[in-house]
Specification:
This protein is of the alpha+beta class. It has 4 helices and 20 strands. The chain has a 6-stranded mixed β-sheet with strand order 2-11-10-5-6-7, with no helix packed on it. A 4-stranded antiparallel β-sheet has the order 12-13-16-15, with no helix packed on it. Strand 12 (about 145-155) and strand 13 (about 160-170) form a beta hairpin. It comes from Sparus aurata (Gilthead sea bream).
Length: about 375
């Protein structure tokens, strides 16, 4: 009799233990130990399973994000999906595998992943007072390879400035510069721009000097998504030499320009000195806007006209005597007139010399500006 009762008692004991185990909340929800990485636009599954497995189709099941308002990502009540309780950003994008609920699988399917979906998700069964968490990391689908370009020359440090840029990143990446031996280089702060699609564009600059290999690397990486892109560049030795020679050439042109200016100033001084000396030898006093020399010339011309009239009327010795004086005055007037012409000619030659020097100075200035522009380019 005791032997006949033993199997039913065993079954009852097992059921009792299972019921006690269930009532004490010994069921646990389990999730992945590592973050789930999803690509923008993809569909992703956030794992969550009840251990040991049991049918949870008739229970209350919640998927939430505590930092959102409302916090519900998915709500299951009495075998139905309560869409009205969901956060608006998740409507039409979350679902459960209803056929797997009887096995305790309440994993969440998230469609068309967005940048804002990244974060911590909570899987929760209130009736069993058990929960599990899943971390979702969202990564960009396609990122551009970094491009390295010569930004400018750095004459203060005696090197060149390289610029690196890469686009299409999510989350925000880091930028590193390395030399040919793999050593990190000290660079300026990274510039970051977030576009309307929530993707990041990063750029960085570094000043490099002439080295053994002149090879440099720009590396852009995102640790949480394990994405890395890098580009290499080699700067020829001739480029550093051109930079050095351009500095010395610029200094030489500056000295030449200063010498030309000094020569022009000296020539101008001598021209002024010459004019001052000439004016001191032949002073001209103006009275009522007419110089003494002009007045004397007018008097001579008037007197000459009178004498010519007398010559037509007079005869003999009087005609010979009176004709000598106009000849003397005419000769003196011509000499004075020739001196004025010579002085005017010298003045014009001096002005032409000054103009020629100014033109040479302008050509030197244009040459310096043109060379500096080519050096920058």
């Amino acid at each position: 009799m005791a032997g006949l009762l033993q199997p039913p008692l065993r079954i009852i004991s097992v059921l009792h233990l299972l019921l006690a185990h269930f009532c004490r909340g010994q069921f646990q929800l389990t999730g992945p130990p590592q973050p789930i990485v999803a690509t923008l636009g993809d569909d992703i599954i956030l794992p969550c399973n009840l251990v040991p497995g049991a049918d949870v189709a008739g229970k209350t099941l919640d998927w939430t994000r505590p930092e959102l308002d409302p916090r519900f990502v998915f709500v299951w009540r009495a075998g139905q999906d309560l869409v009205n309780l969901k956060n608006p950003s998740y409507k039409g994008r979350t679902s459960l595998f209803t056929g797997e609920l009887k096995h305790g699988n309440i994993s969440l399917k998230l469609s068309n992943v967005k940048p804002s979906d990244g974060g911590r998700y909570k899987c929760y069964i209130p009736d069993l007072n058990t929960e599990s968490f899943v971390e979702l990391v969202v990564a960009s689908r396609v990122v551009s390879w970094p491009t390295i370009s010569l930004s400018r020359l750095d004459r203060n440090k005696g090197g060149v400035v390289l610029q690196c840029e890469s686009a299409g990143w999510y989350p925000e990446p880091e930028v590193f510069w390395l030399d040919g031996e793999g050593n990190l280089l000290s660079a300026g702060p990274t510039e970051t721009v977030r576009g309307p699609d929530d993707l990041y564009t990063v750029s960085s600059r570094v000043t490099v000097e002439k080295r053994h290999s002149n090879s440099f690397t720009c590396r852009v990486q995102q640790n949480s998504t394990n994405q890395t892109r890098e580009t290499h560049i080699h700067v020829p030795d001739d480029f550093f030499e051109v930079q050095s020679s351009s500095s010395s050439t610029t200094a030489g042109l500056a000295v030449s320009l200063a010498v030309c200016i000094l020569i022009i100033l000296i020539l101008g001084f001598f021209v002024w000195k010459f004019k001052t000396k000439r004016s001191s030898k032949h002073p001209e006093t103006q009275v009522d806007g007419v110089t003494e020399e002009q007045k004397e010339g007018q008097q001579l011309m008037t007197h000459e006209t009178v004498q010519m009239k007398d010559l037509n009327k007079g005869r003999g010795e009087r005609k010979t005597e009176n004709s000598k004086w106009p000849l003397v005055t005419r000769k003196r007037f011509k000499e004075e007139k020739n001196m004025l012409k010579e002085e005017k000619k010298r003045r014009e030659e001096a002005e032409e010399e000054v103009q020629r020097k100014n033109q040479e100075l302008q050509e030197k200035t244009d040459e310096v500006n043109h060379f500096n522009l080519n050096s920058i380019i």
